[in-house]
């Protein structure tokens, strides 16, 4: 059927293109006939003029002779045109087109088309599968662009994270896990990156906490002992090792300490209920009494829609109002999550002293919380401005940070700055040398440490 359709289309195309060349002689004859008809009308009009006495007989004869001469010349010219080489050339072109067009069309289709492919009726096609295949091709192209970009900018942390998330979305879990681990070289104190790596090792093993996953989760737990992801998966490790009671105890503690609207709470609740049933443990009304917090986590859709139509000043005023409202709530009923959000909001507004105060209050609620500790220290540094030397309040906190994590880059850098400002060049060089060891060669932090060491070494020689 398809060849019949192609043949009809080809015939129509050839006919349309050849027709002007075939009808050239006919057009010439028709044009000549029209001119001869004009001359005949002139002869008739001339006879009428003689009959009416408008034109003399002698004058009329001369005019008649001229008209007939022109008619004879026109007859001769039209006859020659019909038999001229131009008509022959037109037919030659027509023949060439009749042969060339089908030949070229068939050759192109054989080369670029799919004449041997079976027909695929629409009803028999899996449109969703085809759409998925196209999307996969687009994502594969994105991955290649990311890989090329990261070769040129290996210290681009956001690029590594985006690549890891994309690979995970494509269920290439092993590659995603390794990419997250590469990202941890740029941010060795990011618990979330280690969680991402551990989760993908876990997915790759089809729900088993492997040694690689366990190591990643333990590293995240060492950085942030309160990280819910690390606590959940380490408890799952215990459950898979046979310690169901210990795992259930840790999951219940995590459930009680976490906000009710946390995204992981439904999964955690199902895990608790399942394990309690397996162990025969009575958890009472633990799940029922955990009600959703009435405090909004952020702006509503109405707030966002209104903000889109505001001027920059009005929008800033709205943000300040929202932050002020959160601050009032934290004065009345302070909680850890709210105070951490408040500290972050003040930091965004560049109100660093208020930010440090909010983080300090959060740390007071959880004295061992590492995230609040390092956030408070950095806020004190930011509050000091561009003076270069971190204030005493920040130094004291960074010493605690370094005690808990001896490889913390931020603490190593600022404590080194403080030692150098106090004239203890040797101690500063020791701290920055450790910073070089825990950061990737060529990264911004590593380069800054190298330059700082060179500067102090040159000063000591002088």
Number of helices: 22
Number-wise, the strands total 0
* C-alpha geometry: elongated
Q: What's the average pLDDT?
A: 78
Q: Name the helicity range.
A: over 70%
Q: What's the CATH class label of the domain at 133-282?
A: Mainly Alpha
Structural class: mainly alpha
**First-residue to last-residue Cα separation:** 92 Å
Give the CATH architecture of the domain at 133-282: Alpha Horseshoe
- Fraction of residues in β-strands: under 5%
CATH topology (fold) name of the domain at 133-282: Serine Threonine Protein Phosphatase 5, Tetratricopeptide repeat
> What composes the largest sheet?
none
* Sequence stretches where pLDDT stays below 50 over 5 or more residues: 291-298
Multimeric organization: single chain
Find the CATH superfamily of the domain at 133-282.
Tetratricopeptide repeat domain
Rg on CA atoms, Å:
44 Å
What is the helix/strand order?
Answer: HHHHHHHHHHHHHHHHHHHHHH
Task: Explain the overall architecture.
This protein has helices at residues 2-22, 24-51, 57-82, 85-112, 127-152, 157-169, 173-186, 191-204, 211-223, 228-240, 244-257, 265-279, 286-289, 301-308, 312-332, 336-348, 352-365, 370-383, 392-404, 409-421, 425-438, 444-461. The chain is mostly helical. Helix 18 (370-383) runs antiparallel to helix 19 and helix 19 packs across helix 20. The radius of gyration is 44 Å and the shape is elongated. The model is unreliable at 291-298 (pLDDT under 50).
